Q: What sequence folds into this?
């Protein structure tokens, strides 16, 4: 196929060889009708280059179009060789000051929180790094694609608009006309070319005929060649399209995926090429298949020449974009051409494109949008002209967009952000084009569905209207851009146009005022939850707009006053029917009366949406802040206000909330509850709840407080309770209906709270005399009074402005202290202690839950400080003049009446129908009033100014009924009431306040009098009181601490405690034995040897091991003949230690695992939680789990965190993931050395005789092969040496249950390790067990080194148990395998060291991991030894094995690990001369044997150093192995890190510390072996390619290095393209932390088939890189991903933290992130200790939703 295509293109090339671009251009220069000539040229060549077959060939198309089409254009344009001409242009170019870098999807962008004009102003990474902002507080996000860098735009930045690179050159004036440097001819030619080509492109892209071309472009010859073109839509899913395509054009699934991907990316793709009939047929199939539920996919059958011209049109636009980069002059000409109107005022080309935008396919739109960005938006003059055109077309473009189904990023309307966010342009468009009004009107026009009063009605929206509603919301975004920075200077025209826009906005708000009204449901529950979300969505979207409107108004007094008037008119208009149908009534109480209407929230319609009155409230506060309000309040338009009208609707809304709290609206369902929730929520409250409260304050400040309160009482439907003459009594009696009483209690509480808020909330500038930041400080203080909080929690609790800023950073340090996080958790802010006194229990933004948490926390704090527990109200700032009269509410008669009533109810507890909360609120109100009085007295110097005399009023007896006790008297009574213990402190505080105020009054009235003795007395009483309290508090604290300590001791690692409990018996025995030996005199220690005939043996009686089963709690002794005890274990494949991740995975069926390669590329790791069970108890447990799982799967299709079918289960005690069990075995009894054991030569001799005998016996046993060839060999029958009995079948020492468990674990290791089906007969079963033992020991040895822990004594006992069981299991597993198979393994293993002519394919020693060899030799030897009765001891054999392997390893190290250049400085004063000499000698022997392939090293010190370092891990591993295998205690020197490690190890392993002695002591034996090793054919091969050699010591693998700054990763990922779909951006770039590969995750394009299933790139990668386990970083999400197998996974906190000590999963907050090395090390440790799978298991158990995720598709 490829060959055929290249033939075609070369044929084409030949055809066009004679073409000369220069000549063509020359011809054009002469032409009289240039457009015609050029069109002729295009008509001739375009169809010959593009679209010649079913498969496009971009390379040759590009080449040819460059040659035949672009080249002549460039020649014509330059008038000379284009490369020369363009270079000249480039020289004269004045580079734009704007960076203009267009962002790729996922590229990092930066915005400065301090300097950016708005959050849409962003920098590219390069500019950012060269800017001043990198030292500021910045925000980092990833781009969604599109948009460009704002570097150089002076309007975008308050400070530092240029980076170093784009700093303008001051010498050249930027005002200069770019055309000044260009010749007139060139200008003319450029004009010609640009206008022809741009027109051509516009014509072609907007062309809608399928079979015809514009005039002048008809091809000379026309064939029956068509394309079936499939277009993108957002309705059909990927799967639908893929399925349909497979049917319609009969392609493979892969091709269909590729088509679908391209359609999604480019917006269209030809899916079939051929004659018309052929394409038409495909079209009808597609349409038929996709039209069932929805509108069909769009398909067109287009003539190939049309498609060809469209392809070239795109190319031409790209070319234009490319060529204007050479010169600002060219750019300007293109802009001019584009915006020029036709001769008869027709639309300009730019207009034409914009207006056809929604008809074009995605690919075309992208290309012309980019051209706009690089031309029109980069030229400051034309940007303005373009902006005007854009604004003029605005309404039409938006309407097209609303109907279009493409996302906004593919729409021309998306360019609004580039234009409207430039303040000067936005201002110009408002004044010149009335943009603000246009946007608002367009928006309102799209929401036509209204009710009779003209209000929005979302309830009856159809799906399509709902869709439209979603899209039209983007207009609000545009409005936000326009308003985002308010003007600093106003012109009259701007005022006019702004107010016109404000009018339009009021029209919008009027449609919202009173929408979605609710009526209380009584009797029946509502049938259907009414729709409420649309209205709230609108409210939320408009929240910032409303705030910005107010900001604009606030910046100009004239505008403010005008807007206020307009708003008032609008409100009056809305409520023209304010009293409609409602009867006027008169309320009287406490000698006051007021006229109002009869209205009950609980019976009539009420709406939560009141944006007009809330806007008025906002403007009122702004007015109150102005100077006019202070100096000439009479000039404000306040006279027209009707306070009762102002408060009416906000009050109804607040009463509604109270009634909902009181449970009166239960039957109205959740929609109302949700609305109330949002009304108070931080996202909405600024323009909802807060403003309603302000409106009440504004209204009340203009009314008689008694009147205000009476109206409030009436709306709360409580008036009748408090107005009756005997209200103090009556309430008690009215207990007819318990529900009603309960409701009324809650309502009274809510109403009292409302009064507190009306009087007490003065922290907005304009209401109280405060600074702007005071409000924020107070908000933070009250959040932190609940509990210490993380930065992100605080941000969530604070309202954000339109720039997504809370302003918190400016004030946080003045109210809070920061505490850094540890390795887990996050940083927290704590309240500064001195701020606690500002705590207000009735803070208006507290929810009830917040309030009780805060109350508890603050009381606790006070107790801890030894203070009383009263939480009195805080001191408040004074009101602004407009609101000053509000304080009088506190001392008005109606309130005093209410307070008295509640107190009276509290005095008579028998009544019962009052609540403590009610009393608490009353006390708080009294406290507020007293503080107010105190404040007034302290701040005023003149007595006459003090209008507030609360103390006097509460001392007077009540009026009605007469002679009731005064409030003060009631309080005094309550002070001693036993049922009010909790409030005692508060009452006491109030009484003290009263005394002190009275004293103050007396003092001011009657000159300074001496302090009364009573006062003194009181003082001392108080002191005593305090001291006593303090002492009690201290005692309580101590007691608490003690209890806490006990508790935490008990709770600490509950599981560990249990584990220890269960293992106690085992440990005790171990401890008792080892204690007696370990700490015996040191002379004994020196003889501590773990291997060989001299090894340590448990003296005296056999050690008994008794353990307890965690399931049945019975004790059991570990004996060969007893019931089996097992450890829960988890076997997993591992590549953690791999030194070669490129090695392809083994083929499980044929892989021979006998020899482990030194690169350790794949291993089987076994871990255990250390929990012991009876094997039969475990079996019963496992069967139960299986049965349960089956039932569960039938019932609901949920998965568990473990895979029962694969033998997985959770440890019944600790829930640790396990997949098998290891049997616990006793020490193998070995007879003590009988007599002298043979030395190495003799022993080798005996062994080889035994082997020969075995070999001939095995051959005889094979009946099939005995036919021909073996006949001759059979003759060489080797008689077995003395004492070796071939016919002896050893007796299996183990009980049947142990044997069963031996098989179980062996099979599991085999199955998991090789990824095969279980087969207990497979000869590889024992090999896998030995391998797993060796691999696990090696991995633990590495871990100890990495953690800098000593070899012994630091492992948790579960690992010791696991290793012990593994080693002993390894030496016993042969008993359940075929004897001759194991013997054969042994023979092959030994032949790697001692050449054996009978064994073929023995590996070269450089290809063998020596530790694995040692372990396998030792463990497999038992199978040979069992037939030996000559007295040869196992111990002797073990010693000889370790000697042999050690020498081989020495050779291996010297051959692979001696550096060619000595970089290390030799340390002087070495004392190991003997070692150095012998190693030199040995090295030279090797050199002689191998010739030149070894480098020259003469330094013995260096050689010895290499050897020691290289072999140490092997020796440490061997020590661990023999310690566990033989149960030998460990030498104390290895329990600590120290210099003596080498010597101790050597002696423990019975090795000379000069290891070379092993060789020289038996040179006669070793010399031939050495020769054999060196002459192995593999040896030379290995040494010739040193890059594949593994050198020793093998370094521990680490996770990859991560950059310090997270944005470096984002940047890296943004330039990463999907490796499968030719340069496409990857949606979810994911980094493998093990090997550093970047993957295209979670995407169709990179799915591959693995074991017959489609899996995502990550899962596929884990099988290559991590044997099924993977650790990834999802770069866009900033999230670590753990994967195991195909079905398991979890997310894990990333190792990146922001400055506040928090991670940012999902990159939502955008704070700069930095690498936290500690946390990264923690992840690395999890990996190194093979705990990833376990971690996933725990995460999934804790969070069931994780189980449902399709991990395999990531
Ligand atoms: Zn930039
Ligand atoms: Zn820059
Ligand atoms: Zn900055
Ligand atoms: Zn048991
Ligand atoms: Zn466990
Ligand atoms: Zn990897
Ligand atoms: Zn991909």
A:
């Amino acid at each position: 196929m490829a060959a055929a295509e290249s033939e075609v293109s070369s044929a084409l090339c030949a055809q066009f060889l004679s073409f000369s671009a220069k000549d063509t251009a020359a011809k054009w220069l002469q032409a009289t009708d240039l457009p015609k000539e050029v069109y002729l040229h295009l008509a001739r060549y375009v169809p010959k280059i593009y679209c010649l077959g079913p498969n496009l060939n971009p390379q040759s198309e590009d080449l040819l179009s460059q040659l035949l089409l672009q080249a002549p254009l460039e020649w014509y344009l330059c008038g000379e060789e284009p490369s020369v001409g363009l270079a000249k242009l480039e020289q004269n170019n004045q580079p734009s000051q704007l960076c203009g870098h267009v962002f790729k999807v996922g590229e990092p962008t930066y915005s400065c929180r301090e300097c950016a004009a708005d959050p849409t102003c962003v920098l590219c990474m390069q500019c950012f790094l060269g800017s001043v902002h990198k030292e500021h507080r910045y925000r980092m996000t990833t781009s969604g694609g599109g948009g460009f860098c704002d570097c150089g735009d002076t309007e975008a930045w308050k400070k530092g608009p240029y980076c170093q690179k784009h700093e303008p050159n001051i010498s050249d004036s930027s005002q200069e006309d770019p055309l000044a440097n260009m010749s007139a001819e060139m200008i003319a030619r450029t004009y010609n070319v640009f206008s022809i080509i741009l027109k051509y492109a516009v014509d072609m892209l907007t062309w809608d005929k399928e079979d015809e071309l514009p005039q002048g472009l008809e091809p000379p010859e026309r064939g029956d060649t068509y394309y079936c073109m499939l277009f993108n839509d957002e309705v059909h899913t990927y799967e639908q399209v893929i399925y349909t395509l497979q049917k319609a054009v009969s392609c493979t699934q892969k091709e269909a995926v590729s088509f679908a991907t391209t359609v999604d990316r480019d917006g269209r793709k030809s899916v079939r090429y051929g004659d018309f009939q052929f394409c038409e047929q495909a079209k009808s199939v597609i349409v038929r298949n996709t039209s069932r539920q929805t509108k069909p996919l769009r398909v067109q059958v287009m003539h190939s020449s049309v498609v060809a011209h469209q392809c070239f049109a795109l190319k031409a636009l790209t070319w234009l974009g490319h060529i204007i980069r050479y010169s600002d002059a060219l750019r300007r000409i293109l802009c001019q051409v584009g915006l020029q109107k036709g001769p008869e005022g027709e639309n300009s080309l730019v207009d034409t494109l914009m207006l056809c935008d929604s008809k074009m396919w995605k690919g075309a739109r992208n290309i012309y949008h980019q051209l706009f960005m690089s031309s029109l938006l980069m030229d400051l003059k034309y940007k303005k002209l373009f902006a005007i055109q854009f604004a003029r077309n605005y309404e039409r473009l938006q309407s097209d967009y609303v109907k279009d189904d493409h996302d906004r990023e593919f729409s021309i309307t998306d360019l609004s952000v580039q234009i409207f966010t430039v303040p000067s342009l936005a201002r110009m468009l408002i004044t010149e084009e009335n943009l603000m009004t246009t946007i608002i009107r367009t928006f309102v026009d799209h929401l036509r569905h209204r009710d009779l009063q003209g209000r929005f009605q979302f309830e009856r929206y159809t799906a399509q209207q709902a869709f439209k509603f979603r899209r039209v919301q983007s207009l609000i975004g545009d409005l936000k851009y326009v308003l985002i920075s308010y003007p600093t200077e106003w012109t009259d025209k701007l005022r006019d146009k702004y107010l016109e826009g404000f009018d339009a906005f009021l029209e919008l708000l009027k449609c919202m005022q009173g929408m979605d009204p609710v009526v209380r449901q009584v009797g029946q529950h509502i049938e259907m939850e009414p729709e409420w979300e649309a209205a709230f969505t609108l409210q939320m979207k408009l929240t910032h707009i409303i705030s910005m409107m107010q900001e604009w108004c606030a910046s100009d007094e004239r505008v403010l006053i005008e807007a206020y008037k307009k708003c008032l008119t609008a409100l009056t208009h809305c409520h023209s029917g304010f009293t409609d149908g409602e009867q006027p009534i008169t309320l009287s109480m406490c000698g006051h009366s007021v006229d109002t209407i009869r209205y009950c929230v609980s019976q009539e319609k009420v709406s939560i949406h009141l944006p007009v009155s809330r806007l008025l409230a906002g403007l009122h506060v702004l007015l109150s802040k102005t100077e006019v309000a202070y100096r000439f309040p009479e000039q404000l338009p306040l006279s027209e206000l009707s306070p009762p009208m102002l408060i009416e609707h906000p009050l109804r809304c607040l009463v509604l909330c109270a009634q909902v709290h009181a449970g009166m609206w239960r039957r109205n369902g959740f929609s109302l509850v949700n609305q109330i929730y949002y009304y108070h929520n931080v996202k909405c409250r600024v323009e909802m709840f807060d403003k309603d409260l302000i409106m009440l304050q504004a209204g009340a400040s203009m009314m008689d407080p008694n009147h205000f309160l009476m109206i409030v009482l009436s709306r709360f439907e409580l008036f009748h309770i408090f107005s009756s003459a005997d209200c103090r009594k009556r309430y008690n009696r009215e207990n007819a209906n318990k529900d009603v009483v309960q409701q009324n209690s809650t309502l009274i509480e809510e109403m009292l709270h409302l009064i507190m808020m009306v009087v007490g909330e003065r922290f907005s500038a304009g209401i109280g005399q405060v600074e702007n930041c005071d409000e924020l400080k107070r908000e933070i203080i009250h959040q932190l009074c609940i509990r210490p909080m993380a930065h992100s929690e605080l941000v969530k609790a604070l309202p954000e402005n339109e720039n997504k800023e809370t302003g918190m950073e400016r004030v946080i340090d003045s109210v809070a202290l920061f505490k850094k996080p540890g390795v887990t958790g996050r940083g927290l802010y704590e309240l500064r202690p001195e701020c606690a006194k500002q705590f207000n229990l009735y803070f208006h933004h507290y929810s009830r839950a917040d309030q009780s948490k805060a109350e508890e926390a603050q009381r606790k704090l006070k107790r801890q400080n030894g203070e009383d527990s009263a939480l009195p109200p805080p001191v408040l700032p004074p009101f602004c003049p407009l609101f000053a009269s509000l304080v009088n509410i506190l001392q008005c008669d109606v309130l005093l009446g209410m307070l008295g009533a509640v107190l009276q109810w509290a005095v008579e507890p028998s009544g019962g129908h009052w609540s403590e909360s009610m009393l608490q609120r009353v006390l708080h109100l009294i406290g507020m009033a007293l503080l107010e009085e105190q404040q007034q007295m302290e701040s005023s110097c003149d007595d006459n100014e003090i209008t507030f005399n609360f103390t006097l009023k509460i001392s007077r007896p009540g009026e009605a009924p007469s002679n009731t006790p005064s409030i003060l008297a009631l309080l005094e009574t309550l002070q001693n009431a036993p049922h009010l213990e909790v409030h005692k402190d508060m009452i006491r505080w109030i009484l003290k306040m009263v005394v002190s105020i009275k004293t103050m009054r007396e003092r001011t009235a009657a000159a300074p009098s001496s302090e009364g003795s009573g006062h003194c007395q009181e003082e001392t009483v108080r002191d005593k009181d305090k001291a006593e309290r303090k002492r009690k508090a201290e005692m309580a604290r101590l007691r608490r601490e003690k209890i806490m300590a006990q508790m935490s001791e008990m709770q600490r690692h509950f599981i560990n405690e249990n584990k220890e409990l269960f293992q106690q018996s085992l440990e005790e025995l171990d401890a008792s034995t080892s204690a007696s030996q370990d700490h015996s005199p040191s002379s004994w220690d020196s003889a501590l040897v773990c291997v060989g005939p001299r090894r340590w043996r448990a003296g005296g009686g056999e050690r008994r091991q008794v353990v307890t089963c965690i399931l049945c709690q019975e004790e059991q002794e570990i004996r060969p003949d007893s019931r089996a005890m097992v450890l829960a274990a988890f076997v997993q494949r591992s590549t953690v230690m791999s030194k070669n991740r490129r090695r392809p995975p083994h083929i499980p069926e044929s892989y021979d695992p006998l020899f482990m390669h030194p690169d350790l590329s794949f291993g089987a790791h076994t871990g255990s939680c250390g929990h012991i069970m009876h094997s039969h108890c475990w079996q019963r447990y496992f069967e139960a789990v299986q049965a349960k799982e089956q039932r569960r799967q039938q019932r609901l299709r949920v998965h568990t965190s473990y895979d029962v079918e694969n033998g997985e289960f959770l440890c019944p005690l600790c829930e640790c993931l396990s997949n098998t069990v290891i049997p616990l075995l006793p020490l193998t009894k070995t007879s003590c050395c009988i007599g002298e054991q043979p030395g190495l030569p003799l022993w080798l001799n005996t062994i080889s005789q035994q082997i020969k005998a075995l070999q001939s016996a095995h051959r005889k046993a094979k009946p099939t092969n005995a036919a021909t060839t073996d006949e001759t060999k059979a003759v060489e029958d080797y008689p077995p040496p003395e004492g070796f009995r071939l016919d002896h079948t050893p007796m299996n020492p183990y009980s049947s249950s142990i044997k069963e468990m031996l098989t179980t674990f062996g099979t599991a290791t085999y199955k998991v390790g090789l990824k095969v089906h279980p087969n207990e007969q497979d000869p590889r079963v024992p090999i896998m067990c030995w391998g797993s033992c060796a691999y696990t020991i090696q991995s633990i040895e590495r871990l100890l080194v990495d953690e800098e822990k000593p070899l012994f004594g630091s492992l948790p006992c579960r690992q010791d148990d696991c290793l012990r069981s593994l080693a002993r299991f390894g030496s016993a597993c042969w008993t359940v395998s075929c004897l001759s198979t194991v013997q054969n393994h042994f023979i092959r293993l030994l032949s790697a060291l001692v050449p054996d002519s009978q064994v073929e394919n023995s590996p070269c020693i450089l290809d063998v991991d020596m530790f694995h060899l040692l372990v396998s030799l030792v463990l497999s030897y038992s199978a040979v030894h069992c037939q030996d009765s000559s007295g040869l001891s196992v111990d002797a054999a073990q010693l000889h094995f370790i000697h042999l392997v050690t020498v081989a390893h020495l050779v291996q190290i010297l051959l692979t690990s001696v550096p060619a250049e000595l970089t290390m400085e030799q340390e002087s004063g070495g004392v190991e001369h003997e070692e150095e000499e012998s190693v030199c000698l040995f090295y030279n022997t090797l050199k002689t044997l191998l010739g030149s392939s070894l480098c020259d090293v003469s330094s013995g010190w260096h050689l010895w150093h290499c050897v020691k370092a290289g072999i140490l891990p092997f020796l440490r591993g061997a020590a661990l192995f023999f310690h566990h295998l033989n149960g030998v205690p460990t030498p104390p020197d290895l329990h600590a890190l120290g210099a003596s490690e080498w010597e101790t190890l050597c002696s423990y392993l019975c090795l000379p510390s000069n290891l070379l002695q092993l060789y020289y002591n038996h040179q006669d034996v070793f010399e031939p072996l050495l020769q054999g090793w060196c002459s192995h054919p593999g040896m030379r091969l290995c040494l010739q390619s040193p890059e594949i050699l593994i050198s020793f010591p093998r370094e521990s693998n680490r996770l990859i290095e991560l950059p310090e700054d997270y944005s470096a990763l984002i940047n890296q990922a943004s330039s990463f393209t999907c490796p499968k779909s030719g340069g496409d951006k990857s949606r979810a770039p994911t980094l493998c932390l093990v090997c550093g590969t970047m993957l295209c995750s979670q995407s169709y394009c990179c799915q591959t088939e693995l074991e017959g299933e489609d899996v995502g790139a990550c899962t596929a990668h884990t099988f290559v890189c991590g044997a099924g386990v993977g650790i990834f970083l999802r770069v866009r999400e900033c999230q670590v991903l753990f994967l195991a197998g195909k079905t398991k996974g979890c997310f894990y906190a990333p190792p990146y933290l922001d400055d506040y000590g928090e991670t940012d999963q999902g990159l939502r907050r955008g704070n700069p992130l930095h690498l936290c090395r500690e946390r990264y090390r923690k992840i690395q440790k999890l990996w190194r200790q093979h705990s990833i799978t376990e971690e996933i298991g725990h995460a999934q158990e804790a969070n069931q939703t994780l189980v449902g995720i399709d991990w395999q598709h990531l």
